[in-house]
Every structure is written in structure tokens, then in C-alpha cells.
Fold:
Amino acid sequence: MGIKVAKFGGSSLADAEHFRRVKAIIESDPDYCYVVPSAPGKRFSEDEKITDLLYQCHRLVERGKSHEELFKKIADRYTQIAEELELDFDVQGMLLETSDAIRRYKNPDFAASRGEYMNGVMLSKYLGWDFIDAQDVIKFDRQGAFAAEWTNEVLTEALKNHPRAVIPGFYGSYPNGDVHTFSRGGSDISGAIVSRAAKADVYVNWTDVSGFMMADPRIVKNPKVIRELSYAELRELSYMGATVLHEDAIFPVHKAGIPTNIRNTNAPEDPGTMIVMQTRPQEGQSVITGIAGHKNFTLLSIEKAMMNAELGFGRRVLQALEDFGVSFEHLPTGIDTMSVVIADKELVTRKDQIIQRIQQTCQPDSIEISAGIALIATVGHGMSSTPGTAAKLFTALYEAGVNIRMIDQGSSEMNIIVGINIEDFETAMNAIYRAFVKD
Structure:
């Protein structure tokens, strides 16, 4: 018998029917030992997430206003779930205590964390499992940084006394015991933390999609699901805009070498996507793993004769960015040219100052500024060992009438990034996908 940890997102626990699906999933596999729930999410497009309502409650309290009417909307959600599931415990007492604590503590993190806390209590009652309060086992230091090793020590010891338990996601505590939260999406992090402490065989992240798609379905029609990808590929795709799961959110399991399975609560029969340390070649597998992209970049192209022989030139260019608190995305270079790709939001108020500083310290022959750039990354371990991959990519863009403004390929040869005009973004994404993926 192995150990599996299941994390369920807000859409997977939005109402009583989803609670029933979660219970069916857990009971279908005896290897599930620990469950990490989010707060209830939206039931329909116009609905409100419980976490958002809790933040609103805190803001009312902070302004000295009553939050009781707004909290009633939250209480009604939990009451309805409890009644439909016929839960036998004092739900109203929990809700009253929570409302009063939000008023007394006036702490935004505490207020926001109550969504996961109450959902965790209810799910533990429904499953008949133990409940472990994340406030007791997930630790942050005094500055609010996650204390990974301290947490792993405390949580590992706690799990020994609870062979099956529900541990809420999203929050933990400072050394003094006050509640502190991760950033939004923190339940993914919590699930990975529990998996590491439990020495799980698999971390299963249940959400509302059947895994990672090879491209954004809002741009490419019906893209295929990625059945298996490596953590390295996940990092590349997440960095470039793939949003199902960010690599940072599962760093604990990555560090521990635990595979992650992305599954769909609404279609539990789908195998989803398996994220592993190293992928294995599969028959019929595409050369590429996925495509992802971002818009709104600016390309600074700096040209100077004999640049390659001028000691410290690149350092002075980057120093100009650092002096104004600007980070760069990519740095494609030539013998006499150096290009710097920067997100537009970084340059809103500092572009002229940076250009002036580069001119003063580097004395270039010219600086060309190209705004309205989009970046697309084509990612896959198979690219480095397959001749003609780059040719196929560039041919697809040429035939689609897309002008390439920049090319950047990492030393791992696992991805090729192209910079194009922003108006060609959707066309380029579809062209690349069609070139590499057969229907």
C-alpha cells in the first residue's frame, strides 16, 4: 500500500454535489491518506468565491462597520452544504465563532484563511477522518517567509498520529501563533508540503480541468492534453503563461522527487497529466510538449561596433536596468548587438531614464526600441534530439506570414522562444501547434 495526498481546489468543493464527488474519489482508492481542501469556489460564473467574501468582511471590520450581513452570505453557503450532506455537528456554532473571531482579530490573513478552515472541518466530518489545523503545522518565520524545514519536521511528526486526516490549505502561522497565508493559490503549495511530509508516492492535485493542455484552449481549438511532462518542462511552460499549476507551487514535491498528477474532479476517469522528474519516450509522442506565450514586451536592441571586445559592456547595460529596479526577461546577443527583452509594465515610467543611462555609460552606436512584442515558447525534451525541429517551427511561422523579431534558445535546447509582433500572437500559436501536433 502506498500513500497518496489529494488536494482539491475551490471549484472541486463549491457545493454539496462536489463534496459527494470528492468523497467518491477518496473512497475509490485506499491509498489516499491525506486531503488538502481549498475554500468553496464559484458554483456558476456570476457566483462569488468564499475567500473573496471573507476579504470583504475584513475590510468592513477594518473600517469599523458591521460585517454580519455580508457574513450571512458565507454562512448560508456552508449551512446549505452541511444540510444537504446531513452533517452531524454544530455548524452554526462554528460559523458564529468564525464571524466573531474575524471581528475581534481584525487580521486579513486570519479572515481569508477561514474559508479553508471551515471547509476542512466539514470535509473531515463528511469523510469521518481526523482534522489537523494548518495553523499548528505549517510554519512561517517572523518575516513571513515559509519555514520549509521547520514545517516538515513538525508536520511529519503530526502525521504519525493521524493515519488519515484533512489539513486545510492556504495558511499556517508565525512563530507567535498568528495566522499567515500564502499568496492566492496557496492551497497548491500546502498540498505539496503535506505530500513531502507524508513521504507520499504521488501528489494528486484535483481541479476542474483534465490536466495541462498543449496550448491555451482560448487560442488553439481543442488542444491535446499533455499526458506526461517533467518538472523542468512545467517550469518553462508556467513561466511563459501556462496557468493550470505554477512550478513554484509544487516545489516541495519536486525537491522530494514525488510525482504530481493533475486530475479533473468532474471527470475522475481521465488520467490527467503526470508531472515527473524525467519523462520517458512514448510511441506516437509529439516532438514538443507544449506551447505557451505572453504579450506586452519591449525589445531594446543596442548596437556598437566591436562590442564583443569591449570589456564590461554587457554588465553596464544590465547595471542601467538594475539602477532603476527593472528586471529583464531574455538577453539574445550577437557580436556587435545586444538585445534586452523587458516587460512593458517594468518600463512604464522608467524607459527614458534607462535609455539615457545606457547612452551615458555604454556610448552605443544606436538603440532601437520595439514595443508591442509577444513571446512564444515551444517546449519539449524531444526537441534537442530531433533534427529539423527549429526548421519546422520557423517554416510554420513563415507560411503563416508571421515576422520573427527575436529568437532565443536556452543551453538545454529544451525550448525555443520567439519574439513576434503582438498582433500576430494568436496566428503564431496556431501555426506552431498545427506544425507539430497531428489531429
